[in-house]
Every structure is written in C-alpha cells, then in structure tokens.
From TrEMBL:
UniProt keyword terms in alphabetical order: Disulfide bond, Glycosidase, Hydrolase, Signal
Organism for this UniProt entry: Bacteroides fragilis
The family this protein is said to belong to: Belongs to the glycosyl hydrolase 27 family.
Pfam families on file: Melibiase_2, Melibiase_C
Segment forming the signal sequence: 1-23
Matches recorded under Gene3D superfamilies: Aldolase class I (3.20.20.70), Galactose-binding domain-like (2.60.120.260), Golgi alpha-mannosidase II (2.60.40.1180)
One example of a Gene Ontology biological process annotation: carbohydrate metabolic process
GO molecular function terms noted in the UniProt entry: alpha-galactosidase activity; carbohydrate binding
Name of the protein this chain belongs to: Alpha-galactosidase
Domain of life: Bacteria
InterPro entries, per the entry: Aldolase_TIM (IPR013785), CBM6 (IPR005084), Galactose-bd-like_sf (IPR008979), GH (IPR017853), Glyco_hydro_27 (IPR002241), Glyco_hydro_b (IPR013780), Melibiase_C (IPR041233)
Record's catalysed reaction(s): Hydrolysis of terminal, non-reducing alpha-D-galactose residues in alpha-D-galactosides, including galactose oligosaccharides, galactomannans and galactolipids
Length: 529
C-alpha cells in the first residue's frame, strides 16, 4: 500500500460532493419514520404530532427525512356505506387533520393498510378494530379516502389478510396499484410488504418491496437481512428498491452495530425509515443517521444497490458506482462480521479502478490519503468502514457473476426456476441454477458496458453433468451452444462465443426455451484480437 498526502485542492473538491439533502428526490429511496417497530398498534394523534415536531427540531427534516408513516392501529371501522373511519379515542381530530399537521411541518404523510380484509394488528396484536378494514373489496373507495380525501402521500400494504382473498400476490397488488392510479395522484409511493422478494412483477409497480420477515433490534436479524439482500441488486432501478425494513437504530444496539446497520442500508439503497421513538432518540444515534456523506450514498442519483465485491468467512466487501455510470467514483463498505477487530483489504482492480486512488473515510469526514493497488484498514467487531474512492482511471468490467443476472422468474422459494445458489469452488461462491425449460425462464445481464464497439470473446463458465444447450441473445444477434457438458456437476468448463458488442451498453440474455441450460457460474468478456 502506497500513500501520499492529499492537497488542499483535493480536500475542497471532496467537500463539494457532499451537500446537505434538503429536499428528497422522489426517485431515490424514501427517508422518514414509521410507527410500527416501537409502538405497534399503540399509537395516537399526540404521538404522531410530537414525532413530526421531533423530525423538524432534531434536524432530521434538514438531513433529508421527509415521511411520517402511520402504521397499523389507527382504524375505527367502516360506516354503513363502506367508508373507513378513525378510532376517535386515539385520533380525535381524524386522519385528514393529522395529515394536514404533518404537511404543515414541510413533511410527507404515510398511511397503512392490508391487501386482505384484516390487518396484521388484528391477527398478532388482538386489535379487533383491524378486522374488516383492509383494502379487499374496497380498493377504490379506500384509495380515494387515503389519497384524495385525507391527502396521504405514501402507503404500506401488508399481506396478513392477503391469503384469505384467494388471489395471487401479483394479481392482488396489481389491482391495488391500479386503484391508486385511478385516484389521479401520480406522486404516491407504494410499498409492498410481503416479507420476502415478491417477484419481478413488483419491480414494475412498487416504489419498494420488503425482502424479509419483520426486523427486530437483535444484530443477528440485521445480519440475516443483509445476507438476504446481497444478490437482489438486479431488480433495483431508479424509483424502485429492495426494502430491508425499518431501521432499529436507537433501540439498544452498540455504536458500531448501529453504524453497520445504517451504513449497509444506505449503500444498498434501502428506504431509510427510522423505527425508534424520535422524542428520546440518543444523540449518538442521531449523529449516525444524519451523516450527510453516508446519506448521499443512499440518495445517489443513479439509484444503484451495492454488490458483493468479495466475501470471506467473516467479512464482506460491498461496493457501487456513484454519481456517474462508468465513472471513477465508488462507494465501498468493509463489513466485519466477526466478534474481533479485523483488518480488511480491498483491491482496486476489483472495483475497475487503477492508477492513484483517493480514499475518504465517510464516518469521520476525513481524507485518508492517496493509494495505489489496494486499501486496507482495521474494522471493529460487527463494524463497517464506509469509504469513498476516486480513481485516476476506470477500466471496463470483464467479469459478470451469474448470481447478478436479472432472472425473470426468480422467487426465493421457487427452486424449479432460475435462482442463485451457493456452490463451493464457484467464482464468488454462487452460481445460477435451473435456467431454461420455459420461454419465460431466462436471465439477462443488463448494461454490459464496453468503451469500444466491435468483436469480443464471450466466455461462459458453467457446470453440467450431462449434455445441455444454451442460447445467447446479444442485442439483436442470436448464438447457440449445443451439447455443453463439463463432465460432472462439480466440475467447471468454459464455452467461448465470438459476439459483436456496441460501444456503450449492451444486453446479453441467456436462455433455453425447450430444455434445461447448464448451471452458470460467470460470464467474462474480452476484446478479440
């Protein structure tokens, strides 16, 4: 590791990148607060008003947090015409007045419902007023109430009563999406709370979708959610994000664990919805979640989710490009999963950077220096170092891991369609299995970038114990490789195809409509000589 002093000019340049987030972009992940983690159904008008006040007075609004979400527990029932009404004991002035109060603070108001008839609170918290108040058979009337009459800006829709409708998740959530659109509101954010990645259909409808069961303030659960989201970046696009659930900061975690929790949520572009009591939030927690340099990673205009650059037995290195696609700026998280302090090293060539690389420590708001080849640092137990790199040069990406292909039919519980799976000895430790055997069961590498167009070698590393075919669509051209067999399912082989790539971005699709394709490890591209 080689290091040089950073000049004063570089310091000024870096500082200019981090401006205060005063107005949240509606295409970037949501930032705000939600009532469920701490209060569940035990909410009231005074609590919500005081929380909105705290968002302003504690500096959270100025830091970019805009949404105040009222989760389950506000329902009073339905009147004889089917319209919702509020629990008057808890919300004496009603939900419109409360939304107006939130809006008067320069904030956005969020609301809750269920895709079925009964809410989660009615099932798990014995809230009898949550029975019959879900959206089922009331889509239009409730959406009109929420977004036209009451003026709410966001809705989280649970699935606790969804199974009883007899509809598929896709059909039910699509119907709700259409009902929201019929209100004429085009600015409503829509969260699908299904407790696992719902399917690629959701990425076209929702602002965000939950990928895991409910979070809690145990670090083991936080680590499990991080693991669950590691290979879901292909399904993220600007305005549509994997929701890792509400933040459990301010609820008893150590400072290092809170930094990991918040930092990984930020770099993975999850919505940042605080779940603690903002009226009593600790100052140390407040300083973590208002760190503008970390928030900037979450609110980056590219809307990308960090991917695994390297994973060891007890550490992870995650990274994403920021500000400009194929640019020289990268954000990196060095996450120590172990119980002891650990030195973690990131090699710059794995980030497609070369030459001299400037490194900035985002937690401490300071320049670390200029390095070549690699950077390493000590990371506390369960802690995460967050750094920002600016390289002298960026080279084209060569390797595309199969687990990061967009798999059209991917569902976590459906192992009969294309999915990623652990495989010892594979590049990145994961492969793509069960590709093909259906016209819709394809996988794509999107935005495959080359700085020069022309003829390239496309190398696909695969595993197959019998002869299998694979078809490859590269932009408008088709290629087929037949009878691929590596000799055994635990033995890798490579097939090479000459393809033409456009200068800039290309799309490469792998498929086999009439039979199973081999298991895919990775795809590599290199210029033909």
């Amino acid at each position: 590791m080689r290091k040089k002093k950073v000049t004063y000019c570089c310091l000024l340049l870096w500082a200019s990148f981090f401006t205060t987030v005063t107005a949240q972009n509606t295409n970037t992940p949501m930032m705000g607060w939600s009532s469920w983690n701490t209060f569940r159904v035990h909410i009231n008008e005074k609590l919500i008003q005081e929380t909105a006040d705290a968002m302003v007075t504690r500096g959270l609004k100025d830091a970019g947090y805009k949404y105040v979400n009222i989760d389950d527990g506000y329902f009073g029932g339905r009147d004889s015409n089917g319209y919702l009404f509020t629990n008057k004991k808890k919300f004496p002035n009603g939900m419109k007045a409360l939304a107006d109060y939130i809006h008067s603070k320069g904030l956005k108001a969020g609301i809750y419902s269920d895709a079925g008839s009964n809410t989660c609170g009615s099932i798990y918290d014995a809230d009898t007023l949550g029975v019959g108040v879900g959206l089922w058979q009331h889509d239009d009337i409730d959406c009109k109430t929420f977004f036209q009459d009451w003026g709410y800006d966001f809705i989280k829709i649970d699935w606790c009563g969804g199974e009883a409708t007899g509809q598929s998740e896709q059909q039910r959530y699509t119907d709700i999406y259409k009902a929201i659109n019929r209100t004429g509101r085009t600015d409503v954010r829509y969260n699908i709370c299904r407790w696992q990645f719902p399917g690629t259909w959701a990425t076209r409808l929702a602002s965000s979708w939950r990928i895991h069961t409910d979070i809690n303030p145990r670090f083991k659960t936080i680590d499990q959610i991080i693991e669950k989201n590691l290979y879901l970046s292909p399904y993220v696009s600007l305005g549509h994000y994997n929701d890792m659930d509400m933040l459990e900061v301010g609820r008893g975690l150590s400072e290092d664990k809170e930094k990991t929790h918040f930092g990984i949520w930020a770099i993975m572009s999850s919505p940042l919805m605080i779940g603690c009591d903002l009226r009593t939030i600790p100052e140390k927690t407040l300083s973590i979640i208002t760190n503008q340099e970390v928030i900037a990673l979450n609110q980056d205009s590219l809307g990308m989710q960090a991917e695994v650059i390297e994973r060891g037995k007890d550490y992870l290195i995650l990274s994403k490009t920021i500000q400009k696609r194929e640019g020289k700026l990268r954000a990196v998280a060095l996450y120590n999963r172990s119980n002891v302090i650990k030195k973690i090293r990131v090699d710059f060539d794995k980030l497609y950077l070369s030459g001299k690389v400037q490194v900035r420590d985002l937690w401490n708001h300071q320049e670390t220096g200029t390095f070549t080849e690699y950077y390493e640092t000590l990371v506390p137990a369960h802690g995460t170092a967050l750094i920002r790199l600016e390289g002298s040069k960026r080279h084209d990406r060569i390797c595309y891991e199969a687990e990061y292909a967009f798999m059209q039919e991917y569902l976590p519980d459906n192992k009969q369609m294309a999915h990623f799976a652990y495989k010892a000895g594979a590049s990145g430790d994961y492969i793509m299995k069960r590709l093909g055997n259906s016209p819709s069961n394809w996988a794509e590498f999107r935005k495959v970038y080359v700085s020069k167009g022309g003829e390239y070698q496309l190398k696909i590393t695969y595993f197959s114990g019998d002869k299998r075919d694979i078809q490859i669509a590269v932009n408008e051209s088709e290629y087929k490789q037949s009878g691929l067999c590596s000799g055994a399912w635990d033995q890798a082989a490579i097939t090479t195809v000459k393809v033409k790539l456009h200068k800039g971005y290309n799309t490469i699709r792998l498929y086999n409509s009439n039979g199973w394709a081999p298991d895919i490890d990775k795809m590599e591209i290199s210029k033909s000589r």
